[in-house]
Amino acid sequence: MSFSLAAPFVKSVNTAAQRADNTQAAGVNPITLFKTEYLGIQLADNSASHRDLGFTGELGGKWYAIYGDTLWCAPGVSHPSHDAEGFHGMVRDSISECTNDPLRVHDLHLNADGRQKQFIPFNSSWGETNLHGFGGTSLVETDKETATGAVYYLVVRVKSGLVGAGIAKVEMVNGAPTVTKRYGSKGYWWPSDKVARYGDVATFKDHKSDYIYLWGGAPTSMDGFLVESYVYQARVRAADAFDFGSYEYWWGRARGWRSVPLTEFTTETAVMWNSGQGQVVWSPFFSCYIFVHLGPGSNDVYLRTAPSPEGPWSPDVKVFTATPIDGGMTYAGVAHPYLDESGQTLTISYTNNNNIEVLKVSFYKAGTI
Q: Which segments constitute the DUF4185 domain (predicted)?
């Protein structure tokens, strides 16, 4: 099913007298005592490429990482640092299996040359070519018994910009998660010019409620830095993830969840402002939700917390400042909660100029150190 809301219904009128500002930080962040250890650069044990993103998700009892642009190394190169200058080919996204070592992943779907294949496939009947990118924001399990999952992504046309946010079904084929179906008449449900780009900022399956939560940026039809930077929210029960009509949209704290798609994009209906792409996890150690992200235009790794996925979100706590590699960009905070189910430590990765760098943050409570 495709979304058919007409663009004129997008509303961005917002004044302090008319609207509450639900994007403002609220409450107390319990993360006050911590130690951050830089671990190194993440590499694959069976392939070599430069890559970004790497959002993690669970499927069938294993954890996987969804990467964005994956630039192949030159033929015969086994380590990215030894790669010859120049362009050697790429795919727009890829998937790897996580291991117990956050600095090592096992690349999946390799071609005859030992390079990763495209994870979310192009569809030429929709006018897609290799100039279309797919920014995936993690794998979420929809059916544990069958090891079926979903990946949310943003379709990006290189020359003309953002197209729309969508979902694909992921099933195990020959032992590897494989996209078997993309939804929507053109491969997406939420057109970027009409509605929020649900799933582009973050995607999270809450095992406490079995809901999948999606955070996405404002419609591209919004004009101005302030309103363009607001983040909006949707959710769906995991079992209903492939039914467009089952999604609910957050209409602000006063109106809550509604099945009617959001058409008022204001500070009242937004849940965050100017946050980078990131990942949400539940912290058993602090009994709250943590959002891992890097500030846009910043090299800082931040953690903010909330009592529920709806917020309100606390002020950020900075846990690390990255040093850009060769003056490149740092972005995309990624969480690896499977490495410590107690939540007393949280391993975090992020992109640094097409390298995946990894940190380990150890948390403490007052009186324990």
A: 198-355
> CB count, 10 Å around CB of 1?
11
Q: Is residue 104 part of a domain?
A: no
Owning domain of residue 201: 19-42+125-165+178-364
Say how far apart CA 211 and CA 238 lie, in whole Å.
Answer: 6
Share of the chain above pLDDT 70, in %: 95
* Amino acid in position 232: Y
User: How many independent structural domains does the chain possess?
Assistant: 1
Q: Decide if pLDDT at 226 tops 90.
A: no
Q: What digits encode the pLDDT tens for the residues 124-182?
A: 999 999 888 888 778 999 999 999 999 999 999 987 799 999 999 999 999 999 999 99
Distance (Å, whole) CA 94 – CA 356: 14
- The verdict on residue 97 lying in a domain is no
Q: Please tell me the distance from the alpha carbon of residue 311 to that of residue 110, in angstroms, as a whole number.
A: 40
CATH number at residue 301: 2.115.10
Residue 112 lies in a domain: no
**If residue 334 lies in a helix (H) or strand (E), which one and from where to where?**
strand 330-336
**330-336 vs 345-352, strand pairing mode:** antiparallel
User: For residues 71 and 80, is the Cβ–Cβ distance under 8 A?
Assistant: no
Residue 310 to residue 233: CA distance in whole angstroms: 8
Beta pairing partners, 274 = none
- Gyration radius of the chain over CA positions: 20
Here the tokens at position 97 are 């299996």
Task: Identify whether 273 is part of a domain.
Answer: yes
Residue 297's alpha-carbon distances to 224, 276, 301, 332, 333, in angstroms, are 17, 9, 12, 11, 13
Structure tokens, 100: 């117990």
